[in-house]
Amino acid sequence: MATLNVNGSMREFEAEDDTPLLWVLREQLGLTGTKYGCGVAQCGACTVHIDGVPTRSCVRPAATVKATEKIVTIEGLSPNGSHPVQKAWAALDVPQCGYCQSGMIMAAVALLKTKPNPSDQDIDTAMTNICRCGTYNRIRAAIKVVAKGGDTKRAGLSITHVDGSTT
Amino acid sequence: MSQTKSTAPNPSRRAFLGTSLAAAGGLVFGFHIPLADAAASPSDELNAWVVVKPDDTIIIRIARSEMGQGTLTGLAQLVAEELDADWSKVTTEYPTPGQSHARKQVWGSFATGGSRGIRASHDYVRKGGATARILLAQAAANMWQVPVAECRAANSVITHTPTGKTTTYGKVADAAAKLTPPATVALKDPKDWRIAGKRLARLDTVDKTTGAQIYGSDIKLPGMLNAAIKACPVFGGKIKGFNAAAIEQRAGIIKVMQVGDNAVAVIATTWWRAKSALDALPIVWDKGPNQNVSSASIATILKAGLDASEAYVGNEQGDARAAIAASARKIDAVYSYPYQAHATMETMNATAKWTPDRCEVWTPTQNGEEALTVAAKAAGLPIEQCEVYKLHLGGGFGRRGSVHDWVTQAVLIAKAIPGTPVKLLWSREEDMLHGLYHPITQCKLSAGLDAKGEITGVHMRISGQSILAGMGRTTGKDPAVFQGLNASGPEAAIGYTFPHILVDHAMRNTHVPPGFWRGVNLNQNAIYLECFIDEIAHATKQDPLKLRRKLMQAHPKHLAVLNAVAERAGWDKPPAKGVFRGLAQMMGYGSYVAACAEVSVSKAGVLKIHRIIAATDPGHAVNPQQIEAQVEGSFAYGLSAALFGECTLKDGQMEQDNFTTYPVFKMVDMPAVETITMPSGGFWGGVGEPTIAVAAPAVLNAIFAATGKRIRDLPLKHQSLKHA
What we know:
The complex is a heterodimer of chains A (167) and B (724). Chain A has 167 residues and is α+β, with helices and mostly antiparallel strands.
């Protein structure tokens, strides 16, 4: 039995030493919000935070993560989708198929933690995840919305939500 | 709160699979997955499309698959519009393919491709909503014993206008369900729409921001095992043998088995164990007759087709060959377009459970009915004893819409362990090596010019692969090859009039399985035609916009979108210093599209795409903000192909097996996209695909303007754009 600190809880699991953190999260711990996309740290769909650092969990053996290191997955970002980045994503209807968006959100959260007001270049440099639907421009807009304090109207998308609000 | 759940239709019979993550910091994430074989229950529905619950919740059934394109929300908007529903009470669900079969295709086609989701079903889904509204109003009138003409429905409330009495849909739904529906219904004039046509948020967004959305690869069933698979990397090759003993002792391995004649699968307790064991499994392939095929050998065959005497004719008016031969001047160009992989973010997967008398499959599919047919065949069971549950797709782009090879494999694997559900997930490498690739073609274009430089005739000879032939759907001409180049028609007509034109196709098929790839044949046809028009403009010293306008006089809808992008770009004024523009227009999937690209190319040859202006006339626009999202995404997809996308063959197999060797568009590459949506009414066109086609030619024409280099072979990564 090994132990990981995931989303604030100590979780025990059994896996061979070469098992990537991604597959421990998905198969042993039931946290399927973190996705498999490439297995070679190229696409970023598997991005989680380890002590706040965005990490591509598909190439990180779970055995190399100490129980003292704090792992946060998309499920642990907020109890109810209320993290400012999640709220901006919803307000701007960022996802299309949505498969890459857990990783995108985790990458964006990490970026905004280190650079609360990122430039376009900062965004280009930090957001290297792949989205095949091509949601990049709304992702950029959502990051800027968060950076500017959550004013969703600045994105200029004029989206009417089910509660009647407009962003 | 997300409103959208994909479930079996009868909530009372739904089986819920909750994963309690109470240990995870007190969080509980519940999700549910269609587990039960719930038969459709006509008793609680107003019709196939609409169920109204006593609490006023409205369930709208959606037959097409949601893969990011927004069809789920758009179709729900159309039904809700005619239903006069309270949009905040609307939820959606997928009927199952098995129910569709049992109810004689009451929901029409499930096939989700060709940008058809809305344009091919708007009529009957709106009628479903309108019929339900009429039944609800009649039920209220009956309750009040008043003429229905005195009752008005709006926002899920029925009002008896003379007295002001009101009731809600939920209160009269039971009674309404017992009434006989009218034989015909009138649909609203789109100018009266208040739900359709509006910039509404998608119904499926929130779960995609929290990790709660369940995709095919996320499903977990009780007792489920996991499988990884490898098929012979050479298309058409077979398994000669494998040494199962080499891996059987590894932890968690349940079974090592041959699947069909060309693949081997490992079944294990977890996918990682299955996959890593499979990687360690010694396999001997019989690579078969195609093991020496290379990109170069295919290119040679296609090149010969450019001048072959026999070809299928797609568009012929007059005698283009004679006109060109008799012309004062002739322009020729040869273009080519490579194989592309879909590279959906979620790899192919299906979970199957087989017993001697029943087979169930859970899978992300663009065509549930086809998945069911394929599952039944692999199961060796009648369709009535099989069912498919559609799960959300982590991308489709055409890969999940036609040949359901992964479903066949999943069922064959599940058959080896009767009664136990097995999830088959392809590795990225398997997914890239066993795609249904965007077909490879070359095109030779010839134009004749008279002494004044006016075009006398145009001949486009396409040489290359046919998707329909590759799928066994035609043994002769493939009309889809001519997408966007047809003489006329509501689907994909050419926007130019030439005195003489010939478009023909020398079909040259290969051993590589071709497939529908977002945009399909419109993609390369637009590059061929629109770059060649630019070549003619340059050769005759004409402005590319003016030349197009001259040739497009008889094609006002094509011209309108082109004019719209030119006007927005300010074509008649020079762009900023160092920035250059290119144009392209096309018609496909029933819509008219055009783009203007603004690029710069540094002296060292570094391309920067600054801005794309894209116009679409889809006839009707059901959700303009989602159309904008689709158009933006289409440029990412189309430009990814133009800049980077290429699958090449060596020794009969694809050389690209992951994003390391098949790079794709990322944030840093993405230009600003300004979308002009200009529905002109009177027809229904698609929006998911058409603008992909104009992405590459607009950029290539802008690159020519910037550098004087005419790019005729893609991807751009192989081309030097360095200039003096």
